[in-house]
Amino acid sequence: MSDLQRSISDLVIANRILANQNVVDAYGHVSMRHPTNPEHFLLSRSRSPELVDQGDIMEFTLDGKVVGDDRRPPYLERFIHGGIYESRPDINSVVHSHAEEILPFGLTDVALKPMMHVGGLLGPTIPVWDIAEKFGDETNLLVVNPDHGRDLAKRLGQGKITLMRGHGFAAAGMDVQEAVRLSIYLPVNARVMTAAMGLSDHIKALAPGEIEIRRLYNPKASESWRAWEYWAGRAGVSDLLGPAP
Amino acid sequence: MSDLQRSISDLVIANRILANQNVVDAYGHVSMRHPTNPEHFLLSRSRSPELVDQGDIMEFTLDGKVVGDDRRPPYLERFIHGGIYESRPDINSVVHSHAEEILPFGLTDVALKPMMHVGGLLGPTIPVWDIAEKFGDETNLLVVNPDHGRDLAKRLGQGKITLMRGHGFAAAGMDVQEAVRLSIYLPVNARVMTAAMGLSDHIKALAPGEIEIRRLYNPKASESWRAWEYWAGRAGVSDLLGPAP
Amino acid sequence: MSDLQRSISDLVIANRILANQNVVDAYGHVSMRHPTNPEHFLLSRSRSPELVDQGDIMEFTLDGKVVGDDRRPPYLERFIHGGIYESRPDINSVVHSHAEEILPFGLTDVALKPMMHVGGLLGPTIPVWDIAEKFGDETNLLVVNPDHGRDLAKRLGQGKITLMRGHGFAAAGMDVQEAVRLSIYLPVNARVMTAAMGLSDHIKALAPGEIEIRRLYNPKASESWRAWEYWAGRAGVSDLLGPAP
Amino acid sequence: MSDLQRSISDLVIANRILANQNVVDAYGHVSMRHPTNPEHFLLSRSRSPELVDQGDIMEFTLDGKVVGDDRRPPYLERFIHGGIYESRPDINSVVHSHAEEILPFGLTDVALKPMMHVGGLLGPTIPVWDIAEKFGDETNLLVVNPDHGRDLAKRLGQGKITLMRGHGFAAAGMDVQEAVRLSIYLPVNARVMTAAMGLSDHIKALAPGEIEIRRLYNPKASESWRAWEYWAGRAGVSDLLGPAP
């Protein structure tokens, strides 16, 4: 199996996992940087992640143009992915989701913080990108051109997550497993913080030192593979798994 | 396949999607205006949406009378549908649901507002119809005659949604896909607003300009089909789908 | 099929529905008054409702004694059922459940009220029985003898529901369909009230006149059968259904 | 079947139940003290509980060393188990979980208390172990050596549960059925308390006398077996069940 075939299979696994874990529904998407051409990325045609198969994967340039003469409708918001790949050479996979658990944090002045060990991966600050700040309040909130994508990537900065006001989030990982992992534990961390705030005004987030350690992701660790294998099994795509590290 | 057969298949798909997405349970229903006779509408016999099949669809006049000599028991609340079709020629599909997420908004003086991009479809104001305002507090809360239906339609006005105090909601779409879409994202938007209010008294709804754009529904967009195809797949009725637009 | 066989099949259906609807888990139970001997009632042996089959049904006197030489372990709390049948000749089916949604109402001084049309069936007041009031605070909270059962029945009075502090609820129906229906919509009504109180201190319950009408249950209505048929289908026991009324 | 084979089958059942009941996800684990060598314990290799089979079970000394030449990667946090077995000869099974419902109680100064009869098993006080108290705020929050494990066990004391700040909980049972039971009802009890606090500042926990009675666990009771049989059925491992007591 070539690097490209392996990448495409991993991207299909990621689509199915995100659907099975209720991180995405009809909408939302996940991409990977092309394994041999860092100026391109791989992303499904406009299709719900639960239905995505190898044949659905298309190839794009970083400014969101289709590579080749593939005429199938792409996702409108592919510029989220391109914008992040352009500004962050260390990032090789991006997820965009509308997970409802995180939306309250973009609608209030309460900042989402890492509350639990698996939330430490999110990093110390989780910014909110509001499309209206730069583009005014007459957009449809979607990231539909390279300018939108670059502005979002600027708010992401050197972090792994940015919330998107009234819309969802973008998660950026060093590989597809990290991007999926961020996307699964971000909503869990949001639910925990929401519930804790219902109990008390004084809640204890992770300490800065704890976050520094927890934000490191090791793709070779058996702990990382354990989750990937489990999520793939739940999503019914164990047969697509590559070899354990 | 005739227009009528296509409509009936789409209506069966809509029934199954709403059940699968937990928008309706034993109760709730979805109708379509008759494709060739705008003075009639199509609606299942009294049956839970999850169980509805092509043979269950009956035909009604706008004041809720059964067309033909079909003797099967109809839904008591078919007047919700007739009332809306009568007052709104632009509406071709109606959903009625008891989705619990929206009920709190009819029981308090807190107005439900669009909080997220997919909630923009709901429009700028989401009124509450209280049957007791006109009919007193000795009803069984159900919409069981044309007067009830017309009063409800009046509160709906030119909007797409009206909540029904202590009961549920009615959603009105230009086609069955829009009515289903409204019914799926209305409860999501309500959950997001409920959670946000638990975090802070100051929450930011969509801006008026954003709602103006988001409330437009394009039945031909690949984004619309993407969701319909996904929901049908989850509900196990992919085989009933018509051709993609 | 004899009356007794029909009753036993209906009781199996009820067990499976309550498990499928998450009203009961490993614990909780549902009984019926014996169809030809009103001094006896039918109840499964000590088994989780999801696993109950026709052969598991035992027969008891109203003070909880096993009829015949059936040596299988019965439920410890069969006295809930006997106590209610003894004091209420109009009641022919009883459910006991630990549904967590209703527990907060027994632990605070906030009274649960009917908030929605299907909640009207619960009646105007939903009392809380606290075993400690009469039996002190050194019980295991269970209803394990006829005295406990009679005290509970006294708190139920002429109503259909009593909450049980720190434990769950008992629901009393004129037939098994009503008892199941009460048990399904009681937790829904509790969730709606809990969410509404999170939005505002001023919430509007059903009006007294609305409750008077909604508390009436008609076992012959097609609306009643519609739900029973649907719930049985979800629970995988459609094949046990009797004929529609 | 030998005692060891029986123990291993019970441990596989426990793994599958905890996954099926959403007490564990990709992470979390359950162990048993070795049935014939109390200085050893049994625990799966590093694998998600839903996927654990008989062949995955490894054997460890109480200080977390692998017994024999098994080279498969073990769980990093096996020291939770060893630490508790070392300090508590009465404990024969331990569960570690990240169940999100309990996390808010470790992040605020609100103490989790038994609110319901099945919560009485948890005992009168449910302490929170904060790794930072002894080991500072530059850990990764995990229990990765015998010192961590012993410090956790000290906080557990003679109880059955300790919460772990920003991480999860550890539950200690006299046998594997009690450890699983604690782990299932702890999150339920936490949800009930969280919801009750949303209704009122004055909530009534179980009385001390009630807790004293409810904290006793009887492995031979038909009530205990009823739940174990039910949970195993839901998890699809009924075929592994031993004989009823």
**Helix residue percentage of chain A:** 25-40%
Q: CATH class of chain A, please? A: Alpha Beta
Number of domain modules of chain A? 1
- Uncertain parts of chain A: none
Mean pLDDT of chain A: 97
CATH topological fold name of chain A: L-fuculose-1-phosphate Aldolase
The assigned CATH architecture of chain A is 3-Layer(aba) Sandwich
Greatest interface: A-B, 34 and 34 residues
Distance between the termini of chain A: 16 Å
* Strands ordered across the widest β-sheet of chain A: 3-2-1-4-7-6-5
- What percent strand of chain A? 5-15%
CATH homologous superfamily assignment of chain A: Class II aldolase/adducin N-terminal domain
- Helix-strand string of chain A: HEEEHEHEHHEEHHH
Q: How much is the radius of gyration of chain A in Å?
A: 17 Å
- How many individual helices of chain A? 8
Given helix and strand content, the structural type of chain A is: alpha+beta
Q: Quick one: how many beta strands of chain A?
A: 7
Oligomer: homotetramer
Can you tell me the overall shape of chain A? globular
What does it look like?
- The structure is a homotetramer of 245-residue chains.
- By secondary structure, the first copy, chain A, is α+β, with helices and mostly antiparallel strands.
- Chain A has one domain (3-240): L-fuculose-1-phosphate Aldolase (3-Layer(aba) Sandwich).
- Chain A is 38% helix and 13% strand.
- Chain A has 8 helices and 7 strands, in the order αβββαβαβααββααα.
- Chain A has helices at 3-20, 78-87, 103-107, 131-135, 146-156, 176-199, 208-214, 222-234, and strands at 29-33, 40-44, 57-61, 93-97, 128-129, 161-164, 168-173.
- The first copy, chain A, has a 7-stranded mixed β-sheet, with helices on both faces.
- In chain A, β1 (29-33) and β2 (40-44) form a beta hairpin.
- In chain A, α2 (78-87) crosses α5.
- The radius of gyration of chain A is 17 Å and the shape is globular.
- The model of chain A has no long low-confidence stretch (mean pLDDT 97).
- At the A-B interface, α3 and α6 of A face α6, α7 and α8 of B.
